Every structure is written in structure tokens, then in C-alpha cells.
Amino acid sequence: MKASIFDVAKRAGLSVVTVSRVLNGAGTVREKNRQKIMEAIKELDYRPSAAARSLARGKTGIIGLILTTLQDSFFDAVVKEINEALALHGYYLAVSVTREFGSDEAHYLIQEDRVDGLILLSPLEEGRLVSELKKRNIPYVIIDNQLPENTASSIAVDNYRGGYEAASHLLSLGHRNIAHLCGPELFLSTRERRSGFLDALKEAGMEPFAVEQGDYDIEFGYETARKWLADGTLPTAVFAGDDYIAIGFMNALMEAGVRVPEQLSVVGYDDQDIASRLRPFLTTVRQPSERIGLAAADMLLRKIDGKTKRSAGLKLKPELIIRQSTAARGEAN
């Protein structure tokens, strides 16, 4: 039998009114009581009636999410958290995987009041989408914004710090010939990670071995390593702009008999699932997918309910995860 709001109240030991306030995002509930209710909701697998709540709100009960790919474990984890957070508030998530639009028409999720709000995940056409959302007065949140003017409505990771910590880690291991393989220039995250990397080297009085730019994919890392191998010159360490670039780079080294980390250390970015499954396990910079997803859902719900008069973006800290692909220069060579 499906659990009801009364079952949740009974399990939490609180009133139905208090449960209702939590479900509606009221800020007047004590944190201790809110946690009790959230635990009861999970234990009972309670789902509010989306139809009833949508009717009461006079809205669609649907939140849209536009992203460029789901073939990415980081994106997948973020979407999962968003979906679960919105479900607890009686919303359905409509996901659109779109690389580009190719016409002057608005995206179908934006047309005809199909959604109550929209989340953009690392959008390629951010300016155009935001302009359309503002014109139609649709609440929105951007995850990993590309344009500085949209920072106030964004959930982002401190990519500068991530690049800085990656370089600092390699420097602490005694590496002096360090290269960086970065993604496309159009991404703000690319520019920030590179800037953090370069500043860490500058503070140490060093120049990078090389800074190469390409796509966030395995092929770019693989072809760069092949080129350096053919030229007979390699750095002692590489900071890759994402894990796929790092994996491609290591694949080429493995084919050539160059050992990681004994002969060359590698750091990635994102902490994709594959980073801890291939040998050697990849040292990488983890983005907090759970916190990103929850923060995006919370910010959007507050906008929809009119509880955010002035937008304020959120920047989260990344975390350096040290595994097997990096080693001290003196010990490894």
C-alpha cells in the first residue's frame, strides 16, 4: 500500500502540518525536525501526489533539464540527485539531451509553458537559452555557467582551485616538467582550470612543459601522447582537463611501454566512474555531484516559490583524490 503524508507524520513523530511545510520548502521548520521528516520519507518511499500538488499550485508540476550528453558518469550523478530532490517535492523531471538547436525557435521545453522551471547543465548555447527564459519569465538555474554575467543564477565548482591543487600536488612530488591538456576554450571551466594550473607553476618559479588544447575526449589525450612520443620528448607529469583526456593519454603511454606512475605521473579531473576502475587508478579532482544536484534543485524551487528575491550563485569546492597514477619524481624515476 502506498504511503501517505499521515504515515510520514506518524513515522517522524510530528504533525501533518509540519510535514506539509517541509514538502513545500518552508523555511520555518527546525532543521532537526526537517531531518526526521526526510528520513521518514526515504524509509517509507513516500512520493507526494504530483497531480494534486500541481492542481493546487496552478502549475505543470514539471521541471525541465537541458544538457549535452548523458554518456558521462558525472552528469549522470548530478541528474540523479536533481531528480530525487524534485520528486520529494512532487515534481517530475523532463530531460532533454541537446547539443545544438540549429534554428531560431525556442527549445521545445521552453515553449507553451511546458515547465515550471528549467535547469541548464553546462549549456553550449547559454546566452540564447537564458535570453529566451527571461523573455518568457521562466525560473532557471545554470550548472557550470559559461558566461560570467550569469553567475548569480548558477551552481558552479571552483575550477581555478581544482587546477591549482592538481598542479600543487605534482609540484609537491618533485615534478618540474609538467604539461596541461585542456578542453575547448568556450568553456569557462577550461579557462579557470588552466589559470589555476599556471598560477601554481608561476608561484613555484616554473613554466609549463606545454599547454595543449583539444576536446574533452579520449582521442585528444591519446593523440597528444602519440605526438610527444614520436618527437622523443615527454614531460614527467601531466594534468589533464578531464578524466577522459587522462585515460587516452595513459593508453598511448601503455602501448609505448611507458609506465604510469613510474615514468610519468597523470592527474585527471571530474572523478568519473572509470577513474577508479582502470589500472592504475587515476588521481583526479572530484566535483561534488551530490551537492551540485541538491543545490540546483533547492535554488530552482525557491525561485519558483518566489522565496529568492535576489539571486546569489553558489561555488562549491572540488576535492583532490590521490590514487595510483601519481608518484614522487625521485622515487618513480
TrEMBL record:
Keyword Transcription regulation in the entry? The reply is: yes
Q: Which UniProt keywords apply?
A: DNA-binding, Transcription, Transcription regulation
Question: Mind telling me which InterPro entries this protein's record contains?
Answer: HTH_LacI, LacI/GalR-like_sensor, Lambda_DNA-bd_dom_sf, Peripla_BP_I
- Give an example GO molecular function: transcription cis-regulatory region binding
PROSITE patterns according to UniProt: HTH_LACI_2
Which Pfam families does this UniProt record tie to the protein? Answer: LacI, Peripla_BP_3
| Lineage top rank: taxon | Bacteria
Occurrences of domain HTH lacI-type (ranges): 3-57
| UniProt key word ATP-binding | no
PANTHER family cross-referenced by the UniProt entry: HTH-TYPE TRANSCRIPTIONAL REGULATOR GALS (PTHR30146:SF109), LACI-RELATED TRANSCRIPTIONAL REPRESSOR (PTHR30146)
Q: What is this protein called?
A: LacI family transcriptional regulator
Question: What organism is the protein native to?
Answer: Paenibacillus beijingensis
The root-end lineage is: Bacteria, Bacillati, Bacillota, Bacilli, Bacillales
